[in-house]
Write a structure and sequence with these properties.
3-stranded antiparallel β-sheet
Length: 168
């Protein structure tokens, strides 16, 4: 739904942004999700076959969340990573041409874009998210919404600040 809102914002001349996601490739996260899947398989909506082996699977996960003896620091770091579902996916942005939807450029969180490019992308996604959250559409009746901008907004380049203000 946010991509629909993003499609209506001209990012660069003749382009728009589309967000994409893929499953995280981190081995800890993949292993944790598999452990959860195994521990819960057959227990919800099934034949109530919650037996000792399922109990031990759940116990193992809980012990790691609590911090095992001699591994408290390692488990704390692990817990912080696997429990934050934002880490379960990698997000990117595709800049596409409005005419045919073909890809112009791909932006990832690890790409080496300049600060101005990152600001512009962040402003575009933020403005689109606000428009989506309030149900605002380009042809809808104008309505007032309050957006608070802190001093970090003013520290960007004049071009990106102007772009952001025009979006908002």
């Amino acid at each position: 739904m946010i991509n629909t809102s993003l499609h209506s914002i001209e990012y660069s001349t003749g382009t728009f942004i589309e967000l994409s996601q893929s499953k995280a490739i981190d081995t800890d996260i993949r292993a944790f999700k598999e452990d959860l899947k195994q521990a819960l398989s057959g227990t919800i909506g099934g034949d109530d076959s919650y037996d000792e082996s399922k109990f031990l699977q759940v116990k193992k996960i809980i012990e790691r969340f609590n911090g095992r003896e001699h591994f408290v620091d390692v488990d704390k770091k692990w817990r912080k990573k696997v429990a934050d579902v934002r880490n379960w996916f990698s997000f990117g942005a595709n800049e596409k041409y409005q005419g045919d939807g073909s890809l112009k450029e791909y932006y990832s969180d690890s790409s080496g874009k300049s600060g101005g490019q990152k600001e512009k992308l962040a402003y575009t996604v933020l403005a689109s998210s606000i428009a989506f959250a309030y149900g605002l559409e380009e042809n809808s009746e104008k309505s007032f919404r309050f957006v608070m901008i802190d001093e970090a907004f003013g520290k960007g380049s004049d071009d990106s600040t102007k772009y952001g203000l025009e979006l908002f």
